[in-house]
Amino acid sequence: MGKGGSLSDNVIKNIILSYTYVSIWIFLSFTVIVYNKYILDKKFYNWPFPISLTMIHMSFCASLAFLLIKLFKCVEPVSMSRDLYLSSVVPIGALYSLSLWLSNSAYIYLSVSFIQMLKALMPVAVYSIGVLFKKESFKTDTMINMVSISFGVAIAAYGEARFDTWGVMLQLGAVAFEATRLVMIQILLTSKGITLNPITSLYYVAPCCLVFLLVPWIFVEYPVLKQTSSFEFDFLIFGTNSFCAFALNLAVFLLVGKTSALTMNVAGVVKDWLLIAFSWSVIKDTVTPINLFGYGLAFLGVAYYNHAKLQALKAKEAEKKLAQADVEADRLLEEKQGEGNDK
């Protein structure tokens, strides 16, 4: 390759892998969101029990992860002490259960397009929490970029035709818990001296989520479900929905482990565009010119972020080559000095 700012094969490979992980996550996230909306919305399948749906997902994920590890032995379990489990897995499980509960609940009250606009406010939250936990370094230009993305999303949300205060509160709460969880995943994967692959992550986290969700389910949804005698469990609907959720969980852990929580949330804006187009053309949600203008501003922020990330990769690669060259030069110098002493 040419000199002067060219990318090495290693950097190009990392870029391709990063965008591959992002693409997989976008596809699975799109599928799960639309599927969950179909199940929970009264206009479609009409099963408005978000805690129950999330518990079905977690039960499926925990069971499948258990079979893959214990029965089929596809992966080796991770040795984890009780203290490490309580300090690392339990907080992530609690945050994850709250995030899923609130975000699924929002689909009952808000349109898919508006929910995606609110979700796109997450980069500022993720970056701020990342700086707080020292997982991201504070940079003024990055913060300005995050604010510009959020500002564009705020404009897009300004013209929302179907506004529900309770639904907005649920979604904003989900954003707060999700942002914290994403940063905590990085801490669990990198700062505790252990390595969890996607399957072992679900093996430990999913049962914890199920336990946390059980408490609100007993008081909120179980009494209603107990009185609903007409409901019959549809194994095809809930089975395929749970499988999509399992695949999405694998993609989330993989994406965050290989890139960063901030990357996933900025890339999520692309997914939001696809969902807004689907919501407008298929579900027939109202999308106004103000919505589109605001999201155009958000995309400018995403483009700047991607450019900054690429430049950072190039600088890191150049620094690495320079350090290797210095080590090699020191080694040659020591060899020559050794030869001179021998003489």
From TrEMBL:
Q: Name one GO cellular component term.
A: membrane
Subcellular localization(s) per the UniProt record: Membrane
What name does UniProt use for this protein? Sugar phosphate/phosphate translocator
Stretches that traverse the bilayer: 12-35, 47-72, 84-102, 108-130, 142-159, 201-220, 235-255, 262-283, 289-306
Question: Which segments constitute the Sugar phosphate transporter domain?
Answer: 21-306
Per UniProt, what is one Pfam family of this protein? TPT
Keyword annotations for this protein, in alphabetical order, are: Membrane, Transmembrane, Transmembrane helix
**Tagged with keyword Hydrolase:** no
Note the topology in the membrane. Answer: Multi-pass membrane protein
> What InterPro entries does the annotation carry?
EmrE-like, Sugar_P_trans_dom, TPT_transporter
* Keyword Lyase appears in the UniProt entry: no
